What we know:
- This protein is mainly alpha-helical.
- The protein is built from 8 helices and no strands.
- Helix 2 packs across helix 3 (37-45).
- The mean pLDDT is 84.
- It comes from Vreelandella gomseomensis.
- This is Transcriptional regulator.
Amino acid sequence: MFAERLKNAMQGAGYDVRSSVLEREFNLRYWGKPVTYQAVRRWLRGDSIPSQEKLQVLASWLAMDPHQLRYGGEKHASIQEPKAAWDVSASSEERRLLALYRSLPAEQRKTVHQVMETFAKAHSN
């Protein structure tokens, strides 16, 4: 049933239900070791269920409750972090840079992330 809920959530969010789409979109949002095409294919076929950490990323991407995605049924109350205040107060330049960053392919986004972390560490010393 998890596979059906995942497929329905992808369709509801406006994505094609294909392993290649799921692999790409998940890996854009997950900063751990990238998942493989075969792994997401198993999710969509119902052969396996992602770990809780990965399930959280999926649920966030698909704008649904993680418990509901995993188990189905009614939505349960969950503990969530408050939304970051900087989203509201970002300058136009920051919003433009964020939009550019989001438009990059996954590998380039990871490179930019590493460069920014390096600059931040150098600046804090």
